[in-house]
Amino acid sequence: MTVRPLATLAALLALAACDRGGHPPETTAPADGPVVVYAPASAASSLTAAFDAWTAATGNPVSVRFEASDQNVDAVIERRDDPPADLLVAGDVRGIWRAGMEGALRPVPPGVANAPGDPDGAWVAIAVRVAVLVYDARQLAPGDVVSYEDLASEGLAGRVCVLTAAEPLGRTVVASMIDRMGTRPAERAVRGWLANLAAPPFDSEDALIAAITAGECAVGIVGRNAGEDDANRTGLLRYVEPPVPAVEVIGAGVGRHAHAPERAAALLEWLVTQAALPGAPRDAALGEAAADGMVNGGWGADDAVKLAERAGYR
User: Tens digit of pLDDT for each residue in 66-122?
Assistant: First the structure.
């Protein structure tokens, strides 16, 4: 596969910061009521806390539809979002980039022009998550698993849990492995995961963690907010960040057909500038992580989907 180097992406982001103009947004009459947000169910906990904080700070209510990320993106692109999304939050680069390319988003507000995001100015990154290994300390010891491909080892037969490939994190991990290992080794690893499954792929990270906690499987892959430590993670579970981790970017943009575009833009700016979400890419390290996630999660997403289909990873 061909992946654009980070230097190229940095140049694109610099150009985007200089010119976020694009086409002027369509005029929309002011509307009363809450800001309508379409957001990924996988990030419901952190997003709910951020929206509650914004409402407390501004007095503006938020109404959120939490669904699978691709489902929300498709609804906004195809104008099946009822009521129309004022703000679209996607769980991965592939989804939010697709919404921007299909003309479903307005230009981002000037206040977030310098944030990592779409070179054409349709969306910005609001959080960065790292894919980490989580294991049951009753079944595995430190050092037993250190990389994503370790889940394919023979010693883990019948003990692995993974997220469905429809979940953004699953695609991000596969795209990262393709970039790091090459297509054929990555596919062998994914096929190894599937051979070692203790249960069918899970629809949510919460369900996967519950299965490990219950002893139904020994190890899996979940997301952790960039920069977060394990101080608040106690009990039976242990978390391991691989030497070259996959990075997932949560992106957001104002809906093209928003009923409350001004308030949606204000909410987006607040999410970015106030670092309202854990893993918000404000400092240099997280900004670099966001850029890395945009490379693998954006340009590598199609290759990841094709590999998953060939391997029977659904």
Answer: 998 889 999 999 999 999 999 999 988 889 999 999 999 999 999 887 788 888 899
Q: Cβ of 258: how many Cβ atoms within 10 Å?
A: 28
Q: 6-21+32-128+247-305 and 129-246 share one CATH topology? A: yes
Q: Would you say domain 6-21+32-128+247-305 falls under CATH 3.40.190.10?
A: yes
For residue 307, which of 133, 147, 178, 164 has the smallest C-alpha distance? 178
Q: How far apart are CA 295 and CA 74, in angstroms?
A: 22
Sketch the domain layout of the chain as residue ranges. Answer: 6-21+32-128+247-305, 129-246
Q: Counting beta carbons within 10 angstroms of the beta carbon of residue 301, is it exposed (0 to 12), middle (13 to 18) or buried (19 or more)?
A: buried
**pTM (predicted TM-score):** 0.73
Q: How far apart are CA 26 and CA 20, in angstroms?
A: 16
Residue 170 CA to residue 172 CA, distance in Å, equals 5
CA distance 18 to 260: 26
Contact by Cβ (8 Å): 96, 88:
yes
Q: pLDDT tens, 236-288?
A: 899 999 998 888 888 999 999 999 999 999 999 999 887 556 666 555 455 55
